[in-house]
Amino acid sequence: MTTIQIAIRAGSALALATLTLLTGCGSMVGSDMSRRADVDIEVARQRQSEEKAEINNPATYLSLIRKMQEQGLYYASLAHIDEYEQRYGRAPEVLLMRADAQRETDQLAVAEAGYRAVIAATSAMGAGTQGALLNAGAWRGLGITAGRQGHFSEAARCLQVAAQANPTDANTVSDLGYALMRAGEVEQARVPLMQAQQMAETNPKIAGNLVIWLTVNDRKDDAASLAAHAQLSPAARKAIDDDAARVKSAWRDRRIARNAAPAVPVVARTVAATQVTSVATASAKPVATAAGRPSINPLALQRGRLLDTLENAQ
Question: Which position has the higher pLDDT, 23 or 313?
Answer without folding.
Answer: 23
